[in-house]
Amino acid sequence: MRKERIIQYLLLAMAFTAVLSLAVITIFILREGLPLLAEFGLWRFLSGREWAPTRGQFGILPMIMGSLWVTAGALVVGVPLGLAVAVFVTDYAPPALAAALRPAVQLLAGIPSVIYGFIGLKILVPLIRDYLGSPGLSVLAGALVLGVMILPSVISISEDSIRAVPRAYRDGALALGATQWQTLWRVVLPAARSGVVAGIVLGMGRAVGETMAVIMLVGNSLRLPLSPLDPATTLTSNIGLEMGYASGAHLQALFATGIVLFVFIMLLNLAATIFRGRAIRA
Amino acid sequence: MRNCTARSATALALVLGALLLPLAGCGPRGAGAESGIILAGSTSVQPFAELLAEVYAREYPEAPVVDIQGGGSSAGIEAALAGIADIGMSSRNLKEAELAQGLVVQPIAYDAIAVVVHSSNPVDGLTSDEVRAIFAGEIRNWSRVGGPDEPITVITREEGSGTRGAFQELLMEESRITDLALRQDSNGAVRVIVNSDRNAIGYMSLGIVGGYVKPLALDGVVPTVEAAVSGEYRLVRPFLFTWLGELGPSAADFLEYVLSPGAQKVLGSEGLIPVKEG
Questions:
Q1: CB contact under 8 A, A247 and B160
Q2: B107 and B238 Cβ atoms separated by less than 8 Å
Q3: pLDDT tens-digit readout, A131-144
Q4: A42 Cβ partners below 8 Å, 6+ apart?
Q5: N or C end: fewer C-beta atoms under 10 angstroms in chain A?
Q6: What is the predicted ipTM?
Q7: Residue B196 and residue A126: Cβ atoms within 8 Å?
Q8: Do B14 and A239 touch (CB under 8 A)?
Q9: CA angle B74, B76, B81 (to 5 degrees)
Q10: What is the pTM for the complete model shown?
Q11: Distance (Å) from the C-alpha of residue B237 to the closest C-alpha of chain A?
């Protein structure tokens, strides 16, 4: 019994380290970033269009817009594609093909983001430059690659929730004379809606948080992007880009950017949890 | 739920990375002085310091190991101040606030900054005013400076970079680099982009240009080591070693080696300008 108890406490301590690291990270970014926000002003920080740390200008609006553009673009690419794969695997694919597709999708999640970025830089960027004009490094390049990167999140969670739809729903619809597609579109997908939304929100979280591939693809210019062909900077890519040389107020401003990002991701995860909870209850 | 935690952790991994910098500042002074010499700082100086460390280890096998770390000029100066590194490497002049804390500064070489374009670009040279106008976003088409009718893609380094600081100080002066410019975080990344975009213009260490991109003549002076030594080429910045107080004996030995004619010759052959005539 004594041994049982030791194991129990040991596991508790280990579980606690995860919570502890979250707490430590939160405290540190707040400690480093808040003084700048207090001094520069939160609203000025969020709405300022000029980012010039060496001149004391810390406006991150271009990066917020960049993150929104790139994330929205990734969803436009990744959601229809991901949903199509999920539906195909659950309802259309022969079992053998479905069994092969699932691990392939999981492997996609295992590819390091620098590889995605590299492939995008070497293949996608020159194509955009040659056929669409612009320097090639653009919101579009980032969105296309991120669209593929969020596929695993979108696919696996949508697939789970589509599978969780009770068999009776399908049988009922088919018995009433609906075609397979009608059943899927009108009955199964609406029933799985919460889970699908949770998958999309988690994909969004992934897109907002991605750094390496984005630094390599979006060009990192500080002008507000106005079209998908414009280059942009995201919140994460700016931290990654400038971290190495930053000191003083500049470093604090990067931590403050981290706070904004932190709040963003927390809200997204909260939304995903709520939707997922709803999906499980349904 | 497990998924959520993992995701937040990924998103924050980069923040954690940055955290380690100030955290490391709490370490004991002169850490590592027993086992070897630590140099940290400018990524512009880094490849040359690594090369010297390699040659040093070959020539003096009994000397302590020289460990070269990057991080950037500012991080290098901070590391020297905090005593995490024996020597900080900087590719920009120190700010007054930094000097006021008692840092000793020793130039080990000078580096020319070349303005570079794609090798197929018909433009061979620009005036300082033209380069300034291009990087300020006032000239946006190559046809205005004798090139084809194509938009100019301006590539710059990120704020805080020593190369950018030197470019701003030596060439841009009071003008600001346009916010349309694409930002890249290393000499290598600038080279990759300029090498692949025929409308691009950027700037980088002359020693790193290699055969990949075309360095432009500035005000009629082709950037070469000779032109930089003679003072004809104006975009030249110092590569500095900096340290706090007295150097330890093994670090002093390494510094002496770096300033020796042999090592200076190595730097010269790599495209830098020696501080001492070899």
A1: yes
A2: yes
A3: 987 788 999 999 99
A4: none
A5: N
A6: 0.82
A7: yes
A8: yes
A9: 95
A10: 0.78
A11: 17
